[in-house]
Amino acid sequence: MVNIKQAYAQCEAVTAHHSKTFYRAFSLLPPYDRQAIWAIYAFCRRIDDIVDEGEKPHEQLQQFEKQWQSFLAGHTEDDFMWIALRDVFSRYDMDDEPFWHMIEGQKMDLTVHRYDTFSQLLRYCYCVASTVGLMLLPILAPNAQDELKESAIALGEAMQLTNILRDIGEDVTRGRIYIPREVMERYGVNEQHIFFGQVTSSFIDLWEHLAKEAENRYDDAEKMFFLYPLSARLAVKGAALMYKSILHAVREQQYDVFTTRAFVSEERKKALLQQIGGENVEVG
């Protein structure tokens, strides 16, 4: 039987391996809160891996959903992620709704490979990313959850739009184009341009249009950051700044999102954390 310390350690390893940006930002939190974040990330990662890498993703996601239902009924499997998550649910006043919506969003990736409108894309962004922010609110700001809900949703949308803009080339290899058809038509870009990785002036204009949508949402989310307790505020603002910096990294590589994956260097991440926290904030 995996003990709780081992369970959290494995959740941390999953987080550190798969999202250095997320891991770096939330390392600023107090230990118990930090561990809870790792457990929730591991939950989300488990579903994501089923959808992107599972041999039989439909069946595996269905099985995962049954495990989730069993978890909510009080049963805990001998699995580090479920063990850690059980401890999280015992410590914090967790809401299961965003977890269900996350599963809904991952199901969309199995059946929906194109989006006609921006509003349809935003629903997807909410399900796979804004839900994460809502999952984290009971940990980060237990006394201001209602006031911060819209901010968390906006930040999730911004981050997912950033992911989409960074990963256009990677997604197309999986047969997915997340850029809405209405936006592509507006800028005269078609699927062939995407499949062949053509960085034209029209593609750049389209990319910048969606980047502005993301940046507006970062700005909207940040207006309410003052409601977070200090340690959580630094972590959330750090995550937002580091993700937003991915957009600048894409610009620096001349919008080549087809052959190169943009990233924010460790030096840049450290500088951003020092910028928001000052010299007295531990960033190592």
Task: Itemize the secondary structure elements and their pairings.
Layout: H1 4-18, H2 20-26, H3 31-53, H4 57-72, H5 80-91, H6 97-111, H7 118-140, H8 145-166, H9 168-172, H10 181-186, H11 191-195, H12 201-222, H13 230-252, H14 266-277
Helix pairs in contact: 1-2, 1-3, 1-5, 2-13, 3-4, 3-5, 3-6, 3-7, 6-7, 7-8, 8-12, 8-13, 12-13, 13-14
Question: What can be said about this structure in brief?
Answer:
The chain is mainly α. It has helices at residues 4-18, 20-26, 31-53, 57-72, 80-91, 97-111, 118-140, 145-166, 168-172, 181-186, 191-195, 201-222, 230-252, 266-277. Helix 7 (118-140) crosses helix 8 (145-166) and helix 12 packs antiparallel against helix 13.
